[in-house]
């Protein structure tokens, strides 16, 4: 095990999170600063390098003990070239050669990774899939993201877009998805979709304890629907059952394609716990081939919001760590 | 490149095919003998070893120039242990330690591989995906099989059942599949399913040029339906369109999961050519994310019925070939 530390950076539309991480995944220091993507790519590069400096200072680590920097970025990337082609939710930052720029400014080896892949790698490295040889993560938040780790390596695919599991078609003539197509898993299993389907149910006249709140112009969140479901609200319960069933379908398809040792669910939606897991398990039991399901555990993520920066650092360790 | 040759064995319910193959994939000799699986595992092991001897004799290769034997087997395998757990369509042959037995009797290094994976590997090695780094094959025959090659390696998964792509759910409340579940790709895209759906259309009173033949007790094959479709028969045309659309859905899901460089279609159904490929392409164009589809070609297999034995030999070369 190397005694160097690694900096993980998790770039989001709102905030840049960074952490200084040891080779055994201890977080020595971390910070979060606003991304300010609207101020352009020079500014964002500056923010990333500033965050790297800050966490190293916070951890009291000299620069010669830094093994490398991993940066998790959302959107369309060219990972080998180290270029962010179309960042998601970060306006004005197309075609940033982020690896080259951050390397020039910090002097450290730099690695670029998709943010969902980085989070999946963290769960593989030190989280819910730490003793599994291969794993798939589904992140259930505003959208549905995915990351795949096979034999300890992130699967990138031919053009760095493997693991786009939110856009698996699960209902060919189904709901419109944010990607512009129809019937994607994301159109059923994201928090956004849960809220939309709830609104549709109210508009269709279904009775729910949240209806008054909703009709008087109040906003209903995924958490409100969860709490109503816990209280026995029928519409809310049905929506979680449906969400879980669709997720279960996606999970069966992942099992039959990749036969992973573990499938990890993360993101805001997992706060729903059993309300989500029960229908998932029912679908998997009913529909997955016995060989595929018998040896694959479906569980919730363990690392929470630190997964992104931990995974980015972990990928840098795997790439640049010399004496593991 | 090694000057050794490799023997590939393709085990089927009806026949055992074997070939003696050079390191540059030239087939020096091949044979096909009946499997006679009903006579038990000792007999089948004997048939395999006899086939190995025959092709070596046919090729005039001395035993010290044999690099190894690869055996492609259908069914549930334990590849690391070299054991066939539940062979498909070969009664009385459960739990054969095929690697150990064939190694003992022939003296050669022996490798076990799933038959669909072996065929996929052949197309990757010297067939339709020879210059692609990663590929997925779908075999459309009596059933729908799958094989996945990533960075030159067959993907086995945690318990050797990765690539069960025929059992991807594409219609949650859909047709009953041979596996006992519902809505699997195989229930729509196999030749068997095409014939079944044709029979249902006739029974439902749809007009087709084949109806008389069918109603007088004649059997209708996938080929008959293809020929009727070429002749303009509406029911037959519709069935191929539907088959292609469902296949297209499966292919979109494969693209979004694995982002392979190429997807290869093989098996009897590909005789339908454009009748199948056109609706596949339409679905892919309409539904796949542009990044995933732009860099992934969907094409027909190149190797025909030799793919199984070529791939089994190719896997043995990859495993045992010393000086590649």
Layout of helices and strands, plus pairs?
Two copies of one chain form a homodimer.
Chain A: E1 5-11, E2 15-22, E3 27-34, H1 41-59, E4 66-73, E5 75-78, E6 83-87, H2 98-106, E7 110-114, H3 115-126, E8 135-140, E9 144-150, E10 153-154, H4 186-189, H5 191-203, H6 211-215, H7 222-230, H8 234-258, E11 262-266, H9 274-287, H10 290-294, E12 297-300, H11 307-320
Parallel strand pairs in A: 1-4, 4-7, 8-11, 11-12
Antiparallel strand pairs in A: 1-2, 2-3, 5-6, 8-9, 9-10
Structure description:
Two copies of one chain form a homodimer. With 324 residues, chain A is an alpha/beta fold. The first copy, chain A, is built from eleven helices and twelve strands. In chain A, the strands form three sheets. Chain A has a five-stranded mixed β-sheet. In chain A, a hairpin with a 3-residue loop joins strand 8 and strand 9. In chain A, helix 3 crosses helix 11 (307-320). Chain A is globular, with a radius of gyration of 20 Å. Chains A and B meet through strand 9, helix 8 and helix 10 of A and strand 9, helix 8 and helix 10 of B.
């Amino acid at each position: 095990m190397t005694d160097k530390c690694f900096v993980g950076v998790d770039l989001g539309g709102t905030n840049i999170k960074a952490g200084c991480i040891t080779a055994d995944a201890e977080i020595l220091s971390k910070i979060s600063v606003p991304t300010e993507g609207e101020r352009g790519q020079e500014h964002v590069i500056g923010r990333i390098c500033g965050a790297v400096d800050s966490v190293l200072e916070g951890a009291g680590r000299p620069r010669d003990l830094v093994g490398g920097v991993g940066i998790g970025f959302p959107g369309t990337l060219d990972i080998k070239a180290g270029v962010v082609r179309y960042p998601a939710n970060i306006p004005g930052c197309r075609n940033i050669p982020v690896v080259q720029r951050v390397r020039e400014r910090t002097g450290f080896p730099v690695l670029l990774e998709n943010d969902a892949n980085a989070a999946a790698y963290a769960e593989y490295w030190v989280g819910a899939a730490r003793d599994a040889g291969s794993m798939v993560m589904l992140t259930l938040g505003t959208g549905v993201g995915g990351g795949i780790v096979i034999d300890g390596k992130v699967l990138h695919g031919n053009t760095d877009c493997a693991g786009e599991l939110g856009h698996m078609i699960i209902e060919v003539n189904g709901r419109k998805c944010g990607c512009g197509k129809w019937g994607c898993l994301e159109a059923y299993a994201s928090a956004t979709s849960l809220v939309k389907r709830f609104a549709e149910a109210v508009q269709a006249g279904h009775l729910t304890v949240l209806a008054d709140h909703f009709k008087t112009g109040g906003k209903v969140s995924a958490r409100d629907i969860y709490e109503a479901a816990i209280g026995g609200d029928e519409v809310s319960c049905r929506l979680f059952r449906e969400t879980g069933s669709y997720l279960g379908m996606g999970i069966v398809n992942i099992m039959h394609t990749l036969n992973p040792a573990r499938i990890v669910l993360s993101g805001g939606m997992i706060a729903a716990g059993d309300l989500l897991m029960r229908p998932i398990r029912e679908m998997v039991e009913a529909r997955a081939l016995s060989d595929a399901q018998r040896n694959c555990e479906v569980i919730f993520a363990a690392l929470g919001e630190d997964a992104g920066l931990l995974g980015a650092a972990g990928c840098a360790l795997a790439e640049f760590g010399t004496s593991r």
